[in-house]
């Protein structure tokens, strides 16, 4: 089911989301929510989405890498490259705006998958940008907070 995506200036986008306990992943409704997040992201032509964007203040994100979209639970950045990269970003919660954001070029991520199995992965370039953007959402941070310049996009 496609869900409604919250947009600025909705204050729920500014909250710090709560960790998900491993036991909670047994919950059918939560698993359904993960499927709905993926469906919503695809319907909106996004490459990532975070739970707070659909009004759930929990630490779950979807990131699309080469193998397609995956759910990452309680994601944390454990290593950051010295090198940074600038890229254009947009956000389903910030309609019609784009901005240039500087991010780490490569990062290491620690998370759980949707079944509670530990994941450690390296992401670079676009994958690293998506992870940093989505993890920011879990802390109430939007790309417009970090962008040097923000402009209209049509
Ligand atoms: Zn976003």
From TrEMBL:
For whether the record's keyword set contains Transcription regulation, the answer is no
Q: Which reaction does it catalyse?
A: N-terminal N-formyl-L-methionyl-[peptide] + H2O = N-terminal L-methionyl-[peptide] + formate
Identify the cofactor(s): Fe(2+)
Q: One GO biological process from the UniProt record? A: translation
Which residues are annotated as active site? 134
Task: Mention any Pfam family matching this sequence.
Answer: Pep_deformylase
| Family to which this protein belongs | Belongs to the polypeptide deformylase family.
Name of protein: Peptide deformylase
Biological source species: Candidatus Uhrbacteria bacterium GW2011_GWC1_41_20
């Amino acid at each position: 089911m496609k869900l409604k995506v919250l947009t600025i200036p909705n204050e729920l986008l500014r909250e710090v989301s709560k960790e998900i306990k491993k036991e909670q992943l047994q919950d059918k409704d939560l698993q359904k929510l993960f499927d709905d997040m993926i469906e919503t992201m695809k319907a909106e032509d996004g490459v990532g989405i975070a739970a707070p964007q659909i009004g759930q203040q929990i630490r779950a994100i979807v990131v699309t890498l080469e193998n397609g979209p995956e759910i990452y639970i309680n994601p944390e950045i454990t290593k950051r490259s010295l090198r940074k990269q600038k890229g254009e970003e947009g956000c389903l919660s910030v309609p019609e705006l784009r901005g240039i954001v500087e991010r780490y070029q490569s990062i290491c991520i620690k998370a759980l998958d949707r079944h509670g199995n530990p994941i450690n992965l390296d992401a670079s370039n676009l994958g690293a940008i998506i992870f940093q953007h989505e993890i920011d959402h879990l802390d109430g941070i939007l790309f417009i907070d970090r962008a040097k310049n923000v402009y209209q996009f049509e």
